[in-house]
From TrEMBL:
Keywords in alphabetical order: Hydrolase
Source species taxonomy: Bacteria, Pseudomonadati, Bacteroidota, Flavobacteriia, Flavobacteriales
Gene Ontology MF annotations: hydrolase activity
Any Pfam family hit: Glyco_hydro_88
Protein name: Glycoside hydrolase family 105 protein
Highest taxon listed in the record's lineage: Bacteria
Organism: Mariniflexile jejuense
């Protein structure tokens, strides 16, 4: 009897061990894939794209709160991050990423297709950017409200104020001005809309926006672009002969580079403007490679690396990395730019990324914002670009980081 009891006890202990191992493995899988779990463990076996995406979900269960704003708002930065989640969902099929996008959009767009807080008449091109999320949602759900919102944003572009030469004003409050930022905010949406709903009839106009800034904001000395161009040459920050802003800003270049590679997704190779945009991308990639720091990163004011106060900036660097990697994979750029992109990503990981004990990932040295004019007045000087706050885990850097990691399969 004693012998049988010992055998039974051993079997029972083994059974408990098996159950415990099974539970632990199941729980580990849940922790890695279920962002609703408050004890979320972000495994270092995952790729950087998912490690960052899960870290954001852990910190900010609602996408509109990524930058800790007081209430939900339809604005470009959330659209930037969620476009990265859209690509991540396509790659992983993890429904948590899709749901994160849909929850934000459904918070902002009611059953009639009205966008909460959106005013078409403000003619702010930044407000177009989040509209890129609507195409996939409409394709997937066929809910009319998404289509209504798409049409509303398209109507803004249809009536958006323009320079005399045909360029979209950055905002109604910034008359006659084109900023590099605006090309990313408006052109990928414009290109996708005209291809999907108009048989591509306005692709020439999409390309024209790039042509104008290539003609007027391109700096022949560096091969880079000034932050903005004022066609009227009346703004205090504008060069009285050229209308250009006084300096080159890294993130503006990043917006421009991403705009090029994303618009090219909708510009058929046979289209007369396709190769022109590819040339612009090559010019920028080649010029910017000469300003890449030995760390792999780029400086806030990229052509003044050694000037006092300048710093390696995360968001613009990540934008370059994404654009150059995608440009290489699409065949627009020579293969050497994938090496440049990988060097840049190594720089992000080695210099600007920190990881908590629980695996949560943070991205540091992100410029909060930068612009021209306005109140308080922004003069575009070197000192101005260094005066803006430098943040950790700001959305400007998080979205491009995920996209760069995805594109490089890191």
């Amino acid at each position: 009897m004693i012998y049988k009891s010992k055998i039974s006890l051993i079997i029972f202990i083994v059974f408990l061990s098996v159950i415990n191992v099974s539970f632990s493995q199941t729980n580990k899988k849940t922790n890695e894939k279920d962002p609703s779990n408050d004890r979320l463990l972000i495994s270092d076996s995952l790729k950087w794209s998912e490690r960052m995406a899960l870290s954001i979900l852990k910190r900010n269960p609602k996408a509109w709160d990524i930058d800790y704003i007081p209430e939900p708002k339809w604005e470009y930065k959330v659209g930037l991050v969620l476009k990265a989640y859209e690509r991540l969902y396509e790659a992983t099929k993890n429904e948590a990423y899709y749901n994160y996008i849909k929850d934000f959009v459904d918070t902002m767009i009611d059953s009639t297709g009205t966008i909460k807080g959106y005013e078409l008449e403000s003619y702010n091109i930044d407000l177009i950017n989040s509209g890129k999320l609507l195409f996939n949602l409409y394709d997937k759900t066929k809910e009319d409200r998404y289509l209504v919102a798409i049409k509303t944003l398209s109507k803004q572009l249809e009536n958006h104020p323009r320079t005399k030469s045909g360029g979209f004003w950055h905002k109604k409050i910034y008359p006659n001005q084109m900023w590099l930022d605006g090309l990313y905010m408006g052109e990928p949406f414009y290109a996708q809309y005209t291809v999907e709903f108009e048989n591509g009839k306005n692709l020439d106009d999409v390309a024209h926006q790039f042509e104008l800034l290539h003609k007027h904001a391109f700096d022949k000395k560096t091969g880079l672009y000034f932050h903005a161009w004022d066609e009227s040459k009346q703004m205090p920050w504008a060069n009285k002969e050229t209308g250009t802003a006084p300096n080159i800003w890294l993130r503006a270049l990043g917006w421009y580079a991403m705009a090029l590679v994303d618009v090219l997704d909708y510009m058929p190779e046979a289209h007369p403007k396709h190769q022109e945009l590819v040339v612009y991308l090559n010019e920028l990639a080649e010029a910017s490679s000469h300003f890449q720091d030995e760390s792999g990163l780029w400086y806030q004011v990229p052509n003044m690396q050694n000037k006092e106060g300048n710093y390696l900036e995360a968001s613009g660097s990540a934008m370059f990395i994404y654009a150059f990697a995608k440009g290489t994979h699409k065949g627009y750029l020579p293969n050497k730019f994938e090496t440049i992109a990988n060097k840049g990503f190594d720089g992000l990981i080695n210099k600007l990324v920190t990881v908590d004990e629980d695996g949560e990932v943070h991205l540091n040295q992100i410029c909060k914002s930068a612009g021209l004019g306005g109140n308080p007045y922004r003069d575009g000087s070197y000192g101005y670009y260094l005066s803006e706050p430098i943040l950790t885990d700001n959305s400007h850097g998080l979205g491009p980081f995920i996209m760069a990691a995805l594109e490089l399969r890191r």
